[in-house]
Amino acid sequence: MKGEEKMLGKFGKKLLTLMTTMAAVLLSSPVVFAAEALPGAGESYVKVIFTVGAMVAAGFAIGLGAIGAGAGIGNAANGACQAVGRNPGVQGKIMTVMLVGMAMAESVCIYALVVALVLLYANPYVKYFLG
Asked: Do residues 125 and 89 make contact, with C-beta atoms less than 8 angstroms apart?
């Protein structure tokens, strides 16, 4: 038992280190990629703030969209597995409905990807903030 606890403790520390490193990289990357928007002497930082904000918003858009799609697809698969387990004779109908439901859930992630790409490359608010 002690060996297993020790191994789980080491794994937990490594996992925590990995997650902390990933969070630091992901949170600092918008600032790094916005370096091309840095103003020259005497210019304001509005462009930098706007660019970083758009990158963070795009990250949240695709992140939340992917979480929603994953939860929806998992819920659909769970319901289909339970239904087939209760009544195996209607497997074909259940699978068809499940696949349509999964496609609908996946479309949410695709919409989130489109929103993120619009925020990054064709932002409609650029003219208001950057003139």
From this structure: no
Model confidence at 125: pLDDT above 90: no
Residue 10 counted as domain residue:
no
Does the model's pTM come out above 0.70? Answer: no
Give the DSSP letter of residue 122. S
Within a domain: residue 43? Answer: yes
> Is 94 part of a structural domain of the chain?
yes
- CA angle 90-94-99, nearest 5°? 150
Residues with Cβ within 8 Å of residue 62, at least 6 apart in sequence: 109, 112, 113, 115, 116
Give the integer Cα–Cα distance in Å for 12 and 80. Answer: 34
Q: What is the pLDDT of residues 53-79, one digit of tens each?
A: 888 889 899 999 999 899 989 999 999
Cα 120 from Cα 116, distance rounded (Å):
6
